[in-house]
Design a protein that fits this description.
Elements (H helix, E strand, L loop, with lengths): L1 E8 L3 H12 L4 E5 L13 E2 L1 H9 L3 H5 L3 E3 L3 E2 L2 E2 L12 E3 L2 H14 L4 E3 L3 E6 L4 E5 L4 E9 L6 H5 L4 E4 L4 E8 L7 E4 L4 E6 L5 E6 L11 H12 L6 E10 L2 E4 L3 E2 L2 E3 L5 E2 L7 H20 L9 H24 L4 H14 L2 H11 L23 E4 L2 E4 L10 E4 L18 E4 L6 E3 L3 E3 L4 E4 L5 E5 L6 H9 L2 H6 L10
Parallel strand pairs: 1-2, 1-11, 2-8, 11-20, 24-25
Antiparallel strand pairs: 3-7, 4-7, 5-6, 9-10, 10-11, 12-18, 13-16, 13-17, 14-15, 15-16, 18-21, 19-20, 22-23, 24-28, 26-27, 28-29
Length: 501
């Protein structure tokens, strides 16, 4: 029997990002993927938003993606472009890059970190007990893990096996996506009519990329070439002689979210935890950020430096983020309905988004730069992303994000604290402590300028867990909450790998 500390089911962007996060913490992790290989047929998702690029930058990976794609202003709401070029971030843009390239880069990174990626492994179910989880494969084999994370998509078998409810709303519209050959030249570009939006484009492989809205909501199965032809005829009066599809799928506005992201030793991330219409292009991005929130927490629990209830903060923080995504994708679907009254509402929304404050608010939301975890009252930075500031240290100039490459917490001290008896040395092996100077304005997207703190505790996911304003009040509590108890810190063997069950 194969045994690992963590088994991730699904080698999409979420699963691969999570595998890398766990490997950075030297956790014994393996990935099981049903597909025979990493190659992904079809283009699927088409890019990264600004916060996801920042998350990759925090791990020193951003350049790998930026070198393969095209930067552009990609944020928008209900068809209204939202420019973030004036936002306080090193990446005031999105990245146009197809999902197959995103997955390949993440798979290469996981391989560099020694993560075994097992393709052609079809997981049929999981059964957990007090000590771990049995993972059953379609060929009769059984794997064992201390924790299993389902990153296996909207039809997640892991979610179903764990008995986690998937609540929400059924589809009201559906569209077909395909990459195929055509005998006739199609009408290139985007076309909109009473049914919805339709489009033709050239793919990287030279085929015709097709998107066509169906007259009626399609059945919950993979579509056929005949259905594609019928949908094209209904819109264009011809099917353009479409044939030889290499990829054909159906997407809908089905909107559902897992009632819980954790059931014992089984956790969910990405589409296994939330599905919605593609409006706004937030699905892949939300999943990758799920992985970055979960990875360090699961690693600390496995290393026994943090109690198991740290995992409960994963649901508490990420569930509201996805719930907001679901709410706004439903709103955007409603605004694109072919109805004169809805069109009037859409025009009003567009007018509002042309104003400065709504533009900044919605652009920050759609780009992921405004995510705020509720860590209680306090400084505006608390629970928000740490800005990537330029620092001056004893070792020379340094960016904040460079301090996060190893996915360790960082205590950044920007002034001498008042002597109040808080001793941070018990966490020295776990928390990187940096003395630095910083000049310039501290600014957050949508909020604007905020008071400059004298110290901050930054979690491995780049969110601020504590803010010092001249004293260390609350620091010991924050360190204990997010980095484990002082006793655990003293007894921890630095760098010890987490074995399997």
């Amino acid at each position: 029997m194969n045994e690992h500390a963590v088994v991730i089911v699904g080698a999409g962007p979420t699963g691969l990002m999570l595998a890398g996060e766990l490997a950075l913490a030297e956790v014994d992790v393996a990935v099981l993927e049903r597909r025979p290989g990493q190659d992904l047929v079809g283009s699927r998702a088409g890019g990264l938003h600004a916060r996801t690029i920042e998350v990759l930058d925090q791990r020193g990976l951003a350049d790998r993606f930026l070198s393969r794609g095209t930067t552009a202003q990609v944020a928008g709401y209900a068809g209204v472009p939202l420019d973030i070029s004036d936002f306080p971030t090193r990446h005031p843009y999105g990245l146009a890059l197809w999902q197959n390239h995103i997955e390949r880069i993440l798979a290469d990174r996981a391989g560099e970190l020694g993560v075994p990626l097992h393709y052609g492994h079809d997981v049929t179910g999981v059964v957990q007990d007090g000590a771990g989880v049995d993972v059953d494969l379609s060929d009769g084999r059984r794997w064992r893990a201390r924790y299993v994370v389902g990153c296996d998509g909207g039809r997640s078998r892991i979610r179903k096996a764990a008995g986690i409810a998937f609540r929400g709303w059924d589809a009201t519209t559906s569209s077909l996506l395909a990459e195929a050959e055509t005998d006739e030249e199609p009408q290139w570009g985007i076309h909109q009519d009473a049914l919805g939006k339709h489009a033709f484009r050239r793919t990287e492989g030279g085929q015709v990329g097709i998107m066509v809205t169906e007259r009626h909501v399609g059945p919950g199965r993979e579509p056929t070439l005949r259905e594609l032809r019928e949908a094209l005829v209904a819109v264009y009066g011809t099917d353009y002689g479409v044939h030889s599809p290499t990829w054909l799928t159906r997407f809908t506005d089905t909107t559902r979210q897992a009632a819980s992201y954790r059931e014992g030793r089984v956790l969910l991330a990405g589409d296994a935890a939330h599905v919605h219409a593609p409006d706004g292009g937030q699905g892949l991005n939300t999943g990758v950020q799920d992985a970055v929130n979960l990875g360090w927490k699961l690693a600390q629990v496995l290393r026994r430096t943090s109690p198991e209830d740290l995992l409960d903060t994963y649901h508490a923080e990420r569930h509201p983020v996805a719930a907001r995504v679901l709410r706004h994708t439903m709103a955007q679907v409603a605004l694109r309905r072919p109805d004169e009254r809805i069109r009037a509402v859409g025009e009003t929304v567009a007018e509002l988004l042309g104003m400065e404050e709504p533009r900044r608010r919605f652009a920050a939301m759609m780009s992921g730069l405004d995510v705020h975890y509720d860590l209680g009252p306090g400084h505006p930075l608390l629970g928000r992303r740490m800005p990537d500031l330029d620092l001056r240290t004893a070792d020379g100039p340094l960016r904040v994000f460079a301090l996060l490459h190893e996915a360790r917490p960082v205590l950044l001290e920007l002034a001498e604290p008042e002597p109040d008896g808080v001793d941070v040395r018990p966490w020295a092996e776990r928390v990187r402590r940096v003395h630095a100077e910083c000049t310039g304005t501290w600014e957050l997207p949508a909020l604007g300028a905020v008071p400059a703190p004298t110290a901050v505790l930054v979690r491995p996911d780049g969110h601020v867990a504590w803010v010092g304003e001249g004293t260390r009040s609350g620091l010991e509590e924050a360190l204990t909450t997010w980095c484990g108890s002082p006793a655990g810190a003293r007894g921890e063997a630095a760098g010890a790998a987490v074995p399997g069950p």
